[in-house]
Design brief:
The chain has about 220 residues and is mainly alpha-helical. It folds into two domains: about 55 residues, no CATH class; about 130 residues, Serine Threonine Protein Phosphatase 5, Tetratricopeptide repeat, CATH 1.25.40. It has 13 helices and no strands. Helix 2 runs antiparallel to helix 3. It is globular. It starts with 15 loop residues before the first helix and ends with a helix.
Length: about 220
């Protein structure tokens, strides 16, 4: 885990497939099936354990409709690994009613993992919110551009992830994302982070396989 940049403190080494299987078993069990309030309470208890994989499990069983902004803000403050951040955003936060608002809000945070949460949430929303119009994702562009000069590894990778995901959603967003990448290069010629984010996005979005899939 440490070799992949995952903080091994409080970790047990349980893999994601096992956690997903456990989450399904919990949600189908007689004690928690059709009892969202009880499931939500259990998720909070699991989170309070501080154990890495147990916290990921908490995000898999929690009920989005019962998750408050306060809970979301409290949880991101305790992120200490990129995978915990991404899993919670992917499993839970992107399904909440305030997901778009929080993505923008968190993108302005100073803490590395709190800021990463904003861009990870953007990427997850692109992936999961199939009915959203392209305009909702273009609204993320100013925040992606502004954060592109952040040299911190876990921030710049999330910014790049968000930009690439948006560009792979539709043909029009592919072109708009490439334009944004070129604008980033022009605006921040001396930033190593901006150059990497933009060039990597342009390289991936220019692939013929991406274009053909969108067509």
């Amino acid at each position: 885990m440490a070799r992949f940049g995952i903080n091994p403190k409080y970790a047990l080494g349980v893999n994601i497939p096992t956690l997903r299987k456990t989450a399904k078993e919990i949600k189908k069990s007689p004690e928690y099936k059709n009892r969202p309030e009880k499931l939500h309470k259990l998720a909070q208890q699991l989170w309070n354990s501080r154990i890495h994989e147990v916290r990921i499990l908490a995000s898999m069983i929690d009920v989005p409709e019962l998750v408050s902004e306060k809970q979301m803000d409290n949880w991101i403050k305790e992120f200490n690994s990129w995978d915990l951040c991404d899993e919670v955003c992917m499993n839970l936060f992107d399904k909440t009613e305030v997901a778009y608002h929080k993505a923008v809000e968190w993108s302005k945070r100073k803490s590395e993992f709190e800021k990463r949460s904003g861009f990870a949430l953007m990427a997850c929303l692109v992936w999961h919110d199939k009915k959203a119009p392209d305009s909702k994702f273009i609204n993320f562009f100013p925040y992606i551009k502004k954060a592109s000069t952040d040299e911190r590894n876990f921030v710049r990778k999330a910014v790049n992830w968000a930009l690439r995901q948006i560009g792979k959603r539709s043909l029009s967003l592919r072109e708009e994302s490439k334009k944004l990448a070129k604008d980033i290069l022009k605006s921040y010629p001396n930033s190593k982070s901006a150059k990497w984010i933009a060039n990597d996005a342009i390289r991936e979005l220019s692939r013929e396989t991406v274009k053909k899939r969108l067509e």
